[in-house]
Amino acid sequence: MSEEYLSQARFDEIIAGFPQSSIAVIGDFFLDEYLILDKRLSEISLETGIEAYQVTATRKAPGVAGTATNILRSLDVPVFAIGFSGDDGHGFELRRSLQDLGVNLEHFSVFADRFTPTYTKPMLLENGRETEQSRLDAKNRMPLQAKHEKQLIQSLRAVIPEVKAVLAIDQAKDRNCGVITDAVRAELAALAEQYPEKIFMADSRDYMGLFKNSIVKFNIHEASKLFGIEHPNSSAEFVTNLSWKLFEHYHKPIILTLGAEGLQVTDRFGTSRIPAIPITGPVDIVGAGDSVMASAGAGLSVGATLIEASIIGNVTASLIIQQIGTTGTATRQQITARFDENRNLLNATILVSDHPSSANR
After folding, report:
1. How many domains does the structure of the chain reveal?
2. pLDDT computed for residue 323 by the predictor
3. Beta strand pairing call for 199-204 and 215-219
4. 134: domain range?
């Protein structure tokens, strides 16, 4: 092995700093509501003749921005939540769940004219196994009021001096209907210029092209869509070229998630392929991207390099995807053990490429 990109001692040093860091998570906090339906108890409705599923248990957890928050808290990172819920039962459950995690909710708002965004996930229980059924989504589809935007921006400005990093997580498909509106996004870009010593990271399903001055996390399909590429593939050549295009577009570090192929990360020092840790048995990829966002952001907030932080992201994701039908968590003890098991593999297989001439113009 010619170079060890992340030693065990350095790994331990980085994660030891997590409790002394602090991160603001701004974005769309959903309630993930799991309804456990016992197939053996199903009844046929006398009125409609349709099968009536019987709910025998429920699970509730913060989702989307709440997923990243949950992972940060499981890694002992202090978190300020900036977002909103509705003034409804789901909002109460969401706020209580965040409070139970020890999240600072001083700047988490309650807007009576909004839904609490909720993913309701019926899980059909048969023969001891849960299978997810068609999901029920409750989202806000009207633009956020200007007064609410102003309140969110004021909260962001108030929190910035107290944190080392800001993670912006934009889930709303309808533009300006979630937390990360055009005005909030512009404020994030301005604050990133004002506070260059702080880490700003962004993740967005549909509006990543509108972010500026932030480290960005894409999956390969989202990144390809940005450039109008209709048929992406996972070949090394395609991914490397795509990564350089992203870097030239943003002029900020890039994290490109590749599923089972791992991560491609790019900054001014080069582009690197970081492999995924091989996993056997059932996996649930929900939350994998959030785990990379959260744990890599935590690493960067305490001085890790992009490669070091991204290795930690991959290690964390390998634990999250093994937790089926729930919002996954990973403790510092767990990621330490997983890294120790795979350190030689990770360090031996990282591929680093220097800037091509087009990126050094």
Report:
1. 1
2. 82
3. parallel
4. 8-44+53-360
